């Protein structure tokens, strides 16, 4: 099976990111304007992933905070899940953040998001704290980190 091809998204590819983000997050989507604004946000990098010559099916955003980095969001179109896209993107984010000089990568995940939690655990992230009522619907966020 072909590997995931991963590259930095250009502003001309924003439509793909808007589409995949909406498909991934549904009611919890950031919304088109916020996704587009991420393309010009300082220190933010957006990665896309595709199989062969297909349209991209997954994306990730991370922010360079100097000694640390933060995974802002990651999403895979429903039809492309459980094929390693998120794991490949996470690995690419870690590589980029390490190359930029970060010593660790942080993220927050909804405590009820089993798929994401297992993904991060499998990738080597460890839980460091819980932020109570972090999300708009009152759900708690688990904060995780990985040493780079
Ligand atoms: C979470 C998400 C990004 C995972 O993407 P994915 O491409 O399907 O994940 P991968 O195929 O790379 O999975 C890697 C590993 O993570 C774990 N995993 C992924 N999805 C899982 C699920 N639904 N249940 C249990 N474990 C899961 C498994 O260990 C998996 O390895 P395996 O398939 O060999 O068992 C995807 O389900 C998604 O987009 N969800 C909606 C958006 C979201 O919640 N984003 C994260 C916000 S913090």
Helix content: 25-40%
Structural class determined from secondary elements: alpha+beta
CATH fold-level assignment: Aminopeptidase
**How far from one another are the termini?**
29 Å
* Integer count of domains: 1
CATH superfamily: Gcn5-related N-acetyltransferase (GNAT)
The number of helical elements comes to 4
CATH architecture: 3-Layer(aba) Sandwich
Strand content: 25-35%
Topology as a string of helices (H) and strands (E):
EHHEEEHEHEE
Q: What is the mean pLDDT?
A: 96
User: What spatial order of strands do you see in the largest sheet?
Assistant: 1-2-3-4-5-7-6
What value does the Rg take, in angstroms? 15 Å
Could you list the spans in which at least 5 consecutive residues all have pLDDT below 50?
none
Largest sheet: 7 strands, mixed
Which class in CATH terms? Alpha Beta
Coarse morphology? globular
What hetero molecules are in the model?
A: coenzyme A
Structural summary, described in words:
With 148 residues, the protein is of the alpha+beta class. The protein has a single domain, classed as 3-Layer(aba) Sandwich (Aminopeptidase). Helix content is 30%, strand content 34%. It has four helices and seven strands, in the order βααβββαβαββ. It has a seven-stranded mixed sheet with strand order 1-2-3-4-5-7-6. The longest helix has 15 residues, at 85-99. The two termini are 29 Å apart. The model has no long low-confidence stretch (mean pLDDT 96). The structure holds coenzyme A (COA). Coenzyme A binds at residues 24-25, 74-76, 81-87, 109, 113-116, 118-119, 122.
């Amino acid at each position: 099976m072909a590997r995931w091809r991963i590259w930095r998204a250009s502003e001309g590819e924003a439509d793909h990111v808007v589409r995949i983000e909406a498909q991934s997050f549904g009611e919890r989507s950031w919304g088109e304007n916020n996704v587009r604004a991420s393309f010009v946000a300082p220190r933010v990098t957006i990665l896309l992933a595709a199989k062969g010559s297909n349209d991209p099916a997954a994306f990730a955003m991370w922010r360079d905070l100097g000694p640390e980095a933060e995974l802002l969001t990651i999403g895979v179109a429903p039809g492309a899940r459980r094929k390693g896209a998120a794991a490949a993107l996470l690995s690419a984010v870690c590589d980029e953040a390490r190359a930029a000089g970060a010593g660790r990568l942080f993220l927050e995940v909804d405590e009820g998001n089993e798929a994401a939690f297992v993904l991060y655990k499998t990738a080597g992230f460890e839980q460091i704290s819980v932020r109570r009522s972090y999300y708009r619907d009152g759900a708690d966020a688990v904060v995780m980190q990985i040493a780079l």
